[in-house]
Design a protein that fits this description.
The chain is mostly beta strands. The strands form two sheets. Strands 2, 3, 4, 5, 6, 7, 8, 9, 10, 11, 12, 13, 14 and 15 form a 14-stranded antiparallel beta sheet that branches.
Length: about 280
């Protein structure tokens, strides 16, 4: 059960897409459903060892005035205007057991992290029919690592991103999302993942202390479709650590890689109350 919870948290953190669609529609205030998801990803950023999962996942949508939950993210809306909004950004990482990683053999396990903080979003462009948009997102998140027994601060991340959404692309019913940006993290965040303390140093893994600064580049392509209560979606993420301040860490075994995944869910219930929404 613990592995399932961690996997679901990771799926929520990486499935991205159409978050700025502003065409007004009338929809149920909440929907629930279930399905399955498959994903293949590295044990941690910079690892050359991977894990694949195929597991059941829940599907939850809530369309509130201040809190919005959809297939892409949990949003706590703080402020909104026609061109600028501020909401709550969330992300995270999955746990990594050192016994499953050649690079980390004998080192402490990596606990899962939760990242949360404000995001300033600037809308540069909307098409006339409001189906296409181009945005700048500026999330600043604090990271916390916990194994549910102990909690520790794991530093800060700043992840400026350019985001483009194409809804009902080619009138096919598919939504397409493109997200790309840089990552900057402080010393504590990098040290949590990439430090090698002297007591864990070996001939093949020398001691290492990471600094703060540039943390790499990520590009994400995502598609999703909603038809008669069935939602399908997939994504591909390219991650590059070239030029990162910690790229010389002996724990970095791969400086660029892809993560891929897809999910299918079916709605099994919805509220009778209908609400007007402009972001779904």
């Amino acid at each position: 059960m613990k592995n399932l919870v961690h996997f679901l948290a990771f799926v929520l953190s990486v499935f991205c897409g159409s978050g700025a669609y502003s065409q007004t529609e009338i929809k149920p205030q909440w929907e629930i459903g279930a399905g399955f998801a498959a994903i293949d990803f590295p044990i941690y950023r910079g690892s050359n060892e991977r894990r694949s999962y195929l597991l059941p996942v829940p599907y939850v949508v809530y369309r509130g005035d201040m809190l919005q939950i959809n297939r892409e993210r949990v949003r706590g809306l703080i402020f909104r205007s026609d061109s600028i909004e501020m909401d709550v950004s969330m992300n995270g990482s999955v746990p990594a057991k050192s016994k499953d990683s050649i690079a980390r053999q004998g080192m402490p396990d990596l606990a899962p992290t939760l990242e949360i903080g404000p995001s300033l979003n600037v809308h540069f462009y909307y098409s006339e029919d409001k189906k296409n948009n181009f945005d700048l997102r500026l999330p600043l998140r604090a990271a916390t690592a916990t194994d549910f027994k102990h909690v520790q601060s794991a530093g800060w991340l700043f992840q400026p991103q350019l985001n483009a959404d194409f809804h009902d692309a080619g009138k096919s019913g598919w939504d397409i999302g493109l997200v790309g940006g840089l990552i900057y993290s402080d010393r504590r965040y990098h040290q949590y993942f990439y430090n090698v303390a002297p007591q864990y140093a070996t001939a093949m893994r020398p001691a290492y202390t990471a600094g703060g600064g540039y943390s790499g580049t990520q590009l994400i392509f995502a598609v999703n479709n909603n038809h008669d209560g069935r939602r399908m979606g997939g994504f591909m993420k390219w991650d590059s650590l070239k030029g990162a301040v910690f790229e010389d860490s002996p724990l970095v075994r791969s400086k660029q890689y892809f993560t891929i995944g897809f999910a299918v869910t079916w709605m099994v219930g919805k509220s009778n109350r209908m609400v007007e929404v402009s972001n779904d």
